[in-house]
Amino acid sequence: MRLLIPLTALLAALCLWPPVANAATAGNPENIEQIQAAVDPDSFSFIVLGDSVGGDDVFAALIEQINALEPDFVWHLGDVATHGKPEEFDSYFEIAAGIDVPMVAIPGNHDVRDSLDVYVGYFGVRNWSFDIGESRFIGLDNSNYRFDTETLDFAKAKLDTDKPCYIAFHCPPHIERWAHHGMRPDENKGRGREMIDVIGDSNAQYVFLGHIHLHDQMEIRGVPYVICGGGGSALHSRYGFGIAEHGFLHVRVINKKPTIRWISLKSG
Predict the structure, then answer these.
(1) Mind listing the domains of the chain with CATH numbers?
(2) Nearest by Cα to 81 from 128, 116, 29
(3) Residues 232, 56: contact at Cβ < 8 Å?
């Protein structure tokens, strides 16, 4: 009898899948270890951007700008693939290998269209957190346009701290101008309001979001929520709000005090 083994399963068994090109394209756990080992907790910076799928040339150009700033790490907010197929992640990794520093990521809705398992195979975990000194970083999965119980419980546990917290999830909450292209409403089990309350009761400094391909900011329960969806995908200029341009957020933290700056893609 002939035994047929899926190619991805065979490569995984041989430790060849997913491919790891450098620190930027390793899994979240490996990159978190590198970040914690190397970053000065009193003075560091990081980059936030999301939604690079379909814009390889733009993403590559943004990487050049990012490297010139010499950040300590990069935080990708999801949608690096169209359907979440291995070959799509491979293509993304070829470009992301140009990043000079470790990168952490959260899943976007496109990344898990076919299977969350493939995403986890590449990036290791879908919800994660780590500390740099007195600052805490929390990545959450709402790639299915909602927060499941596991993610909500994870957020509650990690936000139960006096440390300044930086949080990210892909889909913006179903609120005001973001409602038409954000999460499911609460009546459809989105549970965004529940997460907003959890974050509002914490020492959250910023919440970073992708999914809408532009840059915008809104304060919700005293916490700034910032959309950074200009990583390369086609821009959403039709919505009539925000800044519809490619770019990224540069965050500097000095003695626990953050400053942020939106940086647009250089022309030419």
Answers:
(1) 21-264 (3.60.21.10)
(2) 116
(3) yes
Contacts of 135 (CB under 8 A, 6+ apart): 41, 163, 164, 165, 166, 253, 256
For residue range 109-153, list pLDDT tens digits in order. Answer: 999 999 999 999 999 999 999 999 999 999 999 999 999 999 999
**Which pLDDT does position 24 carry in this prediction?**
67
pLDDT in tens, 37-69: 999 999 999 999 999 999 999 999 999 999 999
| pLDDT for residue 131 | 98
Q: What is the 3-state secondary structure (H, E, C) of the chain?
A: CCCCCCHHHHHHHCCCCCCCCCHHHCCHHHHHHHHHHHCCCCEEEEEEECCCCCCHHHHHHHHHHHHHHCCCEEEECCCCCCCCCHHHHHHHHHHHCCCCCCEEECCCCHHHCCCHHHHHHHHCCCCEEEEECCEEEEECCCCCCCCCHHHHHHHHHHHCCCCCEEEEECCCCCCHHHHHHCCCCHHHCCCHHHHHHHHHCCCEEEEEECCCCCEEEEEECCEEEEEECCCCCCCCHHHCCCECCCEEEEEEEECCEEEEEEEECCCC
